[in-house]
Amino acid sequence: MCYTGNHKLCRRHSFACKGGKKLWLKNSSFLNSMFKILNTIENINEIGKCILYLLGPDALNKTKLNLNTQKVEGLNRNLRRSLPKNVTVTKNFEGRVHAAVHSVNLGPGESLMLIREQLGAQVTAGSSVEQSLKSIQRTDKLQKEHKKSLKYKNHFIREYLYKAYVIEKETRNYEKKNVYPTPTRKLLEKNKNMVTGR
Fold first, then answer.
1. pLDDT digit string (tens) for 8-66?
2. Nearest to residue 183, comparing CAs of 63, 79, 37?
3. What does DSSP assign to residue 159?
4. Are 174 and 168 in contact (CB under 8 A)?
5. Is the CB of residue 81 less than 8 Å from the CB of residue 97?
6. How much is the mean pLDDT over the chain?
7. CA angle 23-188-166, nearest 5°?
8. Is the CA virtual torsion 134, 137, 142, 145 positive or negative?
9. How far apart are CA 134 and CA 110, in angstroms?
10. What Å distances lie between residue 140 and 105, 129, 136, CA to CA?
């Protein structure tokens, strides 16, 4: 229903779309806020295939541990910071690994505050140490939110499209539709009333 432009049930049943003025399309990098798919059997079947591709049994089995490339790379980066390759750590190797994982899961500031509490190290409320830890946590949170923002995503999408344009220009076969993923391209071709540019 949501893809066909009817957002009446979104507020109650959808985690992605809130309906009303808070449509998911307003945060979409590729689609215009007036995006609609014609309510035909072919289109509904095609959407069903796309949903099964992302939420089918195979996809759910692969993502059940909530692991993805970005999370794994983020953990590896933290591990390299705690355990540099050029240093041999013998006594506290496991502790450093656990601290790195704890920091990735909770955030650096929150992780340090929890470790401090467990060790019984008292910090005066409102002291410069407590403010520094909160500042570290706040900065980390803001950076993560910025990377999820539409402005940040658009920057990388624009960069990706430009690189695709440069590569395809050399072979003289550049078309904007060629840089979209296959399921999206099929829907774009089927629905002439859909506007993809901003």
1. 888 787 777 777 776 777 777 777 777 788 888 888 888 888 888 888 888 888 777 76
2. 37
3. H
4. yes
5. no
6. 77
7. 105
8. negative
9. 8
10. 12, 17, 6
43 closest CA partner among 1, 93, 14: 1
Task: Compute the CA torsion angle 147, 148, 149, 154 (nearest 10 deg).
Answer: 80
Torsion over CA: 16, 22, 24, 27 (sign): negative
Tracing tokens 């955030």 back to the chain, one arrives at 107
- Residue position matching structure tokens 């992302």: 54
Q: What Cα–Cα distance (Å) separates residue 13 from each residue in 2, 8, 10, 17, 23?
A: 11, 10, 5, 9, 13
6: helix, strand or coil: coil
φ, ψ (nearest 5 deg) of residue 69: -60, -40
191 versus 32: the higher-pLDDT residue is 32
Residue 179 phi/psi, 5° resolution?
Answer: -95, 0
CA distance 147 to 158: 15
